[in-house]
Amino acid sequence: MEKDFDKLLEYWRTNDGTGKLFNFKFIQYKKGYLKLEAEFSPITFNPQKNVQGGQMTSMLDDATSILLVYESEGKLYPNSINLHSIHHRPLLDGKVTVVAEIIQQGKNIATLKGEIYNSENKLATTLMHTVFLHKTNN
């Protein structure tokens, strides 16, 4: 299973887009749940040297999407309808743990949840992510 995720994460990293920014590494998977290690590079920091809030939202958008793509065996790709992020505390360094969960999945719409934990394992950001499920050609 870890090799499958490594392959998917490599795909995310090598194609154009945000996958190049976050350096995701697999930690744990179980049905409807994914845990990754990740890192924000200095390019994602605001002038105060904190991670910019939109970058946290972007990371969670990617992580929740990766979980859904994996579980559908690449047959579905999520198109965001709504991203609602709550920032509980600033991130002062770039290394984080990311958790993604599938809350509800129907035929056309899914609700996903993502969380970022700082290096002290304190919750920094929560994302509720509603997506339209686009069928791919896989």
Short description:
This protein is an alpha+beta fold.
State the name of the first-level CATH class.
Answer: Alpha Beta
Shape descriptor reads globular
Summing up helix and strand content along with how strands pair, one would put the structural category as: alpha+beta
> What's the CATH topology name?
Thiol Ester Dehydrase, Chain A
Q: Can you count the helices? A: 3
Q: What value does the average pLDDT take?
A: 91
What string gives the helices and strands in order? HHEEHEEEE
Integer count of domains: 1
Spatial strand order of the main sheet: 1-2-4-5-6-3
Strand fraction band? 35-45%
Under CATH, the homologous superfamily reads Hotdog Thioesterase
- Tell me the radius of gyration: 14 Å
CATH-scheme architecture: Roll
Task: Provide an overview of this structure.
This protein is of the alpha+beta class. The protein has a single domain (2-135), classed as Hotdog Thioesterase (Thiol Ester Dehydrase, Chain A), CATH 3.10.129. Helices cover 26% and strands 42% of the residues. It is built from three helices and six strands; from the N terminus they run ααββαββββ. The chain has helices at 2-14, 19-22, 53-71, and strands at 25-30, 33-39, 76-87, 95-105, 109-117, 123-135. Strands 1-2-4-5-6-3 form a six-stranded antiparallel sheet, covered by helices on one side. A hairpin with a 3-residue loop joins strand 4 (95-105) and strand 5 (109-117). The longest helix is centred in the middle third of the chain and has 19 residues, at 53-71.
